[in-house]
Amino acid sequence: MHRQCSRLLAILLLTAIPTVVFGQEAEFASSPGIASDHVAYDLVRDLTTAFGPRPAGSAAEAAAAKWGSEKMKALGFQSVTIEHFPLLRWSPGETRVELLGNVAQRLVATPLGGLVAGPPVEAPVVLFESYDTFLKSDPADVHGRIVAILEPVRRATDGNGYIALAPARTRGPGEALAKGAVGFVIRSLGTHEDNVANSGASVTLPSPFPAFALSPAAADQIKRAAALGPVNMRLESMAAWAGVGTSQNVVGTIPGSDPNAAPIIIGAHIDSWEQGTGAIDDGFGIAAVTTAATRILRSGKTPRHTIHLVWFGAEEVSQPGALRDFVGARAFTERHQAQVKRALVAAESDWGGGRVTRVTLPPTMSDDLVDRVRQNLHPLGIPVDVGNPGPGVAEIGVLAAAGAPLLRLHQDATGLFDVHHTPNDVLSRVDPASLEQNVTVWEQVISAVADVH
Questions:
Q1: Domains and CATH numbers, the chain
Q2: What is the pLDDT of residues 267-285, one digit of tens each?
Q3: What is the pTM assigned to this prediction?
Q4: Interstrand relation of 121-128 and 78-91 (parallel, antiparallel or unpaired)
């Protein structure tokens, strides 16, 4: 409790008091190019500065949620609540991954989320240029070895290079264990070439199994070492479950004028990985949807449809059993089943910090509503289509499975996986102009859908 109070005091000081930098008094203010209300940039700045990394179930995530609830109230949202739910906390612990023998050296790596590493392992390495080649491999070639998947992620505007390779991280360790491997390493699911590793979740396993994401530079190093002769590695990590904990969703509401009209649910997630400060994933999304909703609140107009704003907790972490992923979204859906099932639309911002490039409306939308959205977005040059939102939805997919039609604002993901789940996911990576464009598009879309007048 003392730590949470200290964090809240810190954020108040950050936002209220001028800062002296190298003898000059300077406002702790938004960067150039930010809209005059600068709510969006202030949100992501304050979230990442005061609370840093926010792993699911951590004290930092809880403190950020409490701050978020107070922020929603201050901005004018009604019926603001913090909704707690249980989960198993996971910790990456300390990690050491290294090559042995004549090429002995330590490599940059991070354990895959949701897995228990077990005791250290030393074994020969079997390399695969692609995940598909590994899946087709003979178990005899894998048994007793450490599997290394070296396939790089293809850079793509829509992020589909990441989506195509994500099963290698989520299911690869389990496939390796089933083939008799004693460990698993994979080139990070990132489009950068830096010597930093991208975190990420895997499907939990019934027994300890060491599995890691390597930095792209480390993966290249292993490949070069293999050209010199057989490669052996040592994998050591304290990655493990850290006991039962609590996470939370923060929910605020803009009441609609028609209590019988189907509600609108928009959101983003407040948690992050241990690396970086979650500025892009997903502080950017928190700032975009919250600011858009705030502008609707401040417009002096009333939406016909009630708008629910959700800051989801525990998006990143895997869980054993039936609740494998998106724990916060599952808790929200269970608690608000009736609202989710009758929702007009559900939408999230969780695809990085790029500009919105197009909008996809669900087939359930009326022609009049589609025309209204197109009219609002025409001056911004944003095309609107109707159909399936496509791959890459996260928490909101849970709501869709429960019956909520999905609305998607597609973003340019060209640079997302340069920082995604890495130590480089920090405030300096947020482009203020891109953030403002996201806020504007979100405001125009939700205003049209909610029938604000």
A1: 28-90+242-449 (3.40.630.10), 93-238 (3.50.30.30)
A2: 999 999 999 999 999 999 9
A3: 0.91
A4: unpaired
